[in-house]
Specification:
The complex is a heterotrimer. Chain A is an alpha/beta fold. Helices cover about 35% and strands about 10% of the residues of chain A. Chain A starts with about 45 loop residues before the first helix and ends with a strand. Chain B is of the alpha/beta class. Chain B starts with 7 loop residues before the first helix and ends in a 10-residue tail after the last helix. Chain C has one domain: OB fold (Dihydrolipoamide Acetyltransferase, E2P) (Beta Barrel). In chain C, strand 6 and strand 7 form a beta hairpin. Chain C starts with 9 loop residues before the first strand and ends with a helix. Classes of the chains: A alpha/beta, B alpha/beta, C alpha+beta. Chains in contact: A-B, A-C, B-C. At the A-B interface, helix 1, helix 2, helix 3, helix 4 and helix 5 of A face helix 1, helix 2, helix 3, helix 4 and helix 5 of B.
Amino acid sequence: MKYDDYIYDLSRPGRTGVDLPAPDVPETPIPAEFLRDELPLPELSLPQVARHYLRLSQKNYAVDKGFYPLGSCTMKYNPKVNEWAARLPGFAAIHPLQDPATVQGAMGLMYDLQQMIAEIAGFDAVSLQPAAGAHGEFTGVLIMRAAQLARGETQRHKILVPDSAHGTNPASTAMAGFTAVQIPSDADGNVDIEALKGALDDEVIGIMITNPNTLGLFESHLVEVARLVHEAGGLVYGDGAYLNAIMGIVRPGDLGIDVMHFNLHKTFSTPHGGGGPGSGPVGVTAELAEFLPGPVVALSDEGDEYIWKQPAQSIGRMKSFHGNFGVMVKAYTYIKMHGADGLRQVSEMAVLNANYMQARILQMGDYPIPYGHRHCMHETVAQGKISGADDVHTLDIAKRLIDYDYHPPTIYFPLIVHEALMIEPTETEDKETLDGFLETLDRIADEARTHPDLLHEAPVNAPTRRLDEVRAARNPILVRLPSTTVTS
Amino acid sequence: MRYIPHTEAERRSMMEVIGIQDIDELFADVPADVRYPQLDLPQPMTEMEVMRELDMMAAENANLREFASFLGAGAYNHFVPAIVDTVISRGEFYTAYTPYQPEISQGTLQAAFEYQSMVAALTGMEVVNASHYDGATAVAEAAIMAVNVLRHKRRTIVVSPSLHPQYRQVLRTYTQGMEMKIVGDELDGNDFHALIDLCDKDTALVIVQNPDFLGQLHTPQEMQDLADAVHAKGALLAVATDPIALGLLKPPGDYGADIVTAEGHVLGNSVSFGGPYLGIFAFRKKYVRKSSGRLVGETIDVDGKKGYVLTLSTREQHIRREKATSNICSNQALNALAAAAYLAAMGKHGLRKVAELSWHKAHYAAQQIAQLDGYEVVGDKPFFKEFVVKCPRPVAEINQYLLEEYGIIGGYDLSQEYPGLGDAMLLCVTEMNAREEIDDLVTALGEAAAPMIRLEVTL
Amino acid sequence: MTLKYDPTLKYAETDEWARAEGDIVVVGISDYAQDALSDIVYVELPEVGDEVSAGDAVATVESVKAASDILTPVSGEIVEVNEALDDAPEVINEDPYGAWIFKVKASDLSELDKLMDAAAYEAFNATREH
């Protein structure tokens, strides 16, 4: 027996964990027909539970452990004061349906956060309700749909999406009942203006654009793109996942974006939690404010208290209650600690770090950077193509980085760059860390040429070697219970 | 400054390598007329200062550690043992990303697989995903999944009027662009026969809640009969349920559900003003390829050692893009971890006890209130942890009295969503309500009914 | 690695192969396609009885990292699907020209004329990025 064994294997019949008090009220019989036959949950002692999860955690890599240059994800330091704040009983132990008079502190926090995000990004109104970035995107597309329908534009059903877009963009489009039309990028990594002009007609709802884009580049023609789309009667949706590059540098609302989602768990330092929870607020221009999902927090007419308000033509409710409040507290704390100058420095240092890495990689000469002729923004996209090592791919390089105690960058995204290696250092990494990683990349390139097996066999220093994903997909084992194993 | 480690010397050395003199050169692509806006934000605070401010803001809220609460309606105050926070506070868990590099994410992956298995046991279902955002969006995803399973040939969803109002709102929001029809909740009550009568050749899914929004329980036989009738019409059945109730009561997997959803924050997560929560989503294994949300599967590595990976990713947005089963990119990983740690710590015995305590305390409260003049406990079925009480005056007035005189947060005012009930509140009693609190509630309700008490409602 | 081309079959630019047996058209995917997908883990088959038009996506072939739509080259009615693929989808990797996916009773066999022969398809592949 090992404490990190499968949890049911640690179970012993009759063992108990948490004790509960006996009922302090007279008991009411429970009709037998309602009772379940068995409850096949594990039976562990609390010391076992503590050891099990501690040992599991030790098999994880995390930002608190080391460098995590995952492009597109903004793996910056997660401040501990944020964790302290979210756990305050006055925030953690309040019910969403309480009388507003009893939760003015929480509503005030939400109101301030709405205002601050609007100010940072250049919008007029914000809803904090969406639970994640993809959720915010879906919200944004529904807002575009509602706005066009309200204008009487019922013939519009296409949304333009750059070929470099994150998969959630076309997926959100489809969920709203629309068709995604792909627009190619030009040689400089910007949306191809001529292709855009060709695609614009009166059936286009608008464009979903990411800036900086997934190539890590600032869309140089964004103002022009927005102008063209608006002229054709369309709206401009901005994917705000990369806001970390531009806080205090430029406001997306000033560039012509009409609606944008934000990722509090990227830009605003809330932790990723192993895959969630996130929070994906949406900001809009004044014209679109009435379509936001609700309720949002507003000030009463007298201005003396916070109230819930449903926007006049709201697309509806996107999730239960008000959004991921526990995540909002962390983002609020972060913004309050930084202020305008602090946020600008965050973006400047994020972009400086990425450009430093880009310049050093180009100097080293091992890995091509297709758009390296431009300054990148917060991330740079290299390719795992090492000259003299044709049978070594991005996947092998990534796995070998694990042996050197690094989390690999994002691999194989964006799709338009072959063998992509997308590196986002973030601003919270020191120069020694960046230099160490760069040296390792150089060393791995040498290994690729002289001892490629080291890469093909990698990782050898991790809790497991490479895992058989084909087996997992062909005969999925998704649940394992003591008496049965359920396979699909 | 704050979390930025660069010294001035380092900045300069890095700029030299890049070949620039000034940081603004990196932003030359930004149109000059909008570059470097002056952001009107409050002056930055140090950690010490912000902690003080947050303490004050938090203190402005009446929290459930200090005030007795009988408020439920989809968000609940259940016991969270201390060990749960210990687990989710491990930096290795909460500062990790989605486990796309499985070799160094076995902690996250195994914990998620264990969550899937324990929730499968709890719901009696074959497969569980790694979670959706909450109980409401899980219902919406169930509708989309049913339409996918039936290959888009059926597009009507029949919903019970006793499904949580917010879940029905979210369902309508999600499907507004999908050419789907939502019917059923224009009816009164929770009569299954009326719902079956609405089913036709275009019905993909029937969604009910058990225990329902008003706390009412249908017998397992009634549920099985419903499932059989729905299946006979060629549709699927989704049941939204309460995970705590399942510590005691027959799970939907035992009575024919095809999809089971639930609001899972009740397992080890704080009530947190409505989020982040946990969308439990379970279904029959034959539908797995049409399901949405992350799935963790068991496999082996090249040495034959057991390990876990994200699997069946071709359903998801990063591969299928516009043909994905949903656009969802994340899950509520840390909330699911809390739920798993909770289930592990409580175990089969503990969870059953929590459910029993909720049952006995809620029934005790209902019996006491039923004896009060002017109040009526509504509902002809057994209930779990929540019940409807018709009140002698508007709920807002009663709740104000409860709060001001007794420091009690009262039940949910149903007059908006269920006007047919008149002045009625939904009262929730869990294992967290001590007998003294319940007795105080009863006393306070009795007093609040008295006509001499004039209350000015300041809301 | 050299890819195989069955000279008796016709090919679409979207990598399906087709063979007419009377008015039944048998469809599968080429060696080029299975090689690009690598290990196939699942095949989603159409339903017998489905009415389809040429160019419709009627099946999906999935690997771990990708999902490919299989387009029917002809219009008509699906009359048979290869259920052996439910348990062993990997036979497409092993024997792409033997592992058929579905059969269509064609309403207009002349639609097959739009397809390429083996030589033309091989030439077409030479122009593509791998």
